[in-house]
Amino acid sequence: MxxxxxxxREASVxxxxxxxxxxxxxxxxxxxxxxxxxxxxxxxxxxxxxxxxSVPYYEQVQLAEMPVTAFEVNPGYVHxxxxxxxxx
Length: 88
Hints:
The chain is mainly alpha-helical. It is built from 4 helices and 3 strands.
């Protein structure tokens, strides 16, 4: 098991999504109060690492698609992500 290290933006986005249900990109943006470009970049980095998945599946989400796309934490990383958030 590897130790996950999240940036501040990544941690904010993961906290916003939570571990129970998926959340729309627009809701995530409202919760973290970041610019749409920053939220999109952060989500793309989390998706590239495999920590977050989009519904429907995208390898990378585009700026225009982000607000209406749902995102959820990858169930395979829930335990590690919770530990990473608790270390912050």
